[in-house]
Amino acid sequence: MKLKFTKMHGAGNDFIVVNAIDQDVSRITPADWCALADRHFGVGADQILLVEKPSKSSADFKYTIYNQDGSLVENCGNGARCFVKYVHDKGMTQKREITVQIATGLMILTLNEDGSVTVNMGVPKLQAAGLPAVVDSLPSRKQGEDTLYAVNVNGGTRWLSMVSMGNPHAVQVVSDVNTAPVLFDGEALEKHAIFPNKANIGFMQIHDQHHISVRVFERGAGETLACGTGACAAVVAGIRRGVLSSPVTVQARGGVLNIAWAGKGHPVMMSGPAVTVFDGEVPLVD
Ligand SMILES: N[C@H](CCC[C@H](N)C(=O)O)C(=O)O
Asked: How many CA atoms lie within 13 A of 136 on its CB side?
């Protein structure tokens, strides 16, 4: 069988986008997605995005996400922006506001006049248990409204904010993202025993209350050039700690994301670029 796909990226976080409405992907396994995402033996991508028929009548599409390692993901912010551009460019809808079913519920995506996309990323969950993270035996301290947990890793202690954007994020403040041990600590924390489902690990440098730089070691993908949900989690953590004010411009390694959050109980709004690189076709072993 041959699989048609589109290679896209959002601020350098790259995707293989597959129309799973017009193509039967039922026999493609997580191991196949993993092979396609391989940067040396496959097409290469941080995540695979499937555009599917929704099972809920209130949604226009369903959006299923796989990490580079073949694991399923609950939510993907940069992917959501590419999703909107994809269904528009392929003539699958004329709507500029699209409701998409994801693993954790419904997400509302808006295609702006300038081609950028604004995503309602939903209300963040602020309890560590919701990630899930097992924090009962960890030292903790309050900063503003946030609770930080002390986690020992690689011979040091990191103070982490726990934020769920549907997927699990642990965020720490660093003095310089360029020199932060993102790979060394990120890999150890992603798989730390306190995260039974693993976690995405964010490193945030604060420039001023409206500007930060963020690097994220992603669960199942390693460090990416940008992570939409990671940028949202960092802004939520910074606002709760009392060191950021909405809106916040987030500099990722591959581009800029704009995040607004009105506080507890409100959804996080994210905007940023969505870019098509090329359309392709790959043979798959039957
Ligand atoms: N790159 C994505 C997040 C993927 C998260 C994934 N690595 C996970 O396992 O939760 C984003 O833009 O939000």
From this structure: 2
- Is-catalytic flag, 76? yes
Decide: 284 and 2 in contact? Cβ < 8 Å: yes
- What DSSP designation does 123 have? P
| β-pair type (156-164, 248-252) | unpaired
Is 34 assigned a catalytic role?
no
pLDDT recorded at residue 285: 65
- With bands split at pLDDT 50, 70 and 90, how would you rate the model's confidence at 31? very high
pLDDT at 286 over 70: no
For residue 132, is the peptide bond before it cis, meaning its omega torsion is within 30 degrees of 0?
yes
> Looking at 72-221, which runs of residues are DSSP E strands?
72-73, 97-102, 105-111, 117-120, 140-143, 146-153, 156-164, 168-173, 200-208, 211-218
What whole-number distance in Å separates Cα of residue 191 and Cα of residue 219? 8
Task: Provide the mean pLDDT of the chain.
Answer: 96
Q: Any residues with Cβ below 6 Å from ligand 1, and which?
A: 13, 46-47, 67, 73, 76-79, 167, 200, 218-221, 224, 227-229
Residue range 150-176: average pLDDT?
A: 97
| Global pTM value | 0.97
Q: Is the ipTM of this complex over 0.90?
A: yes
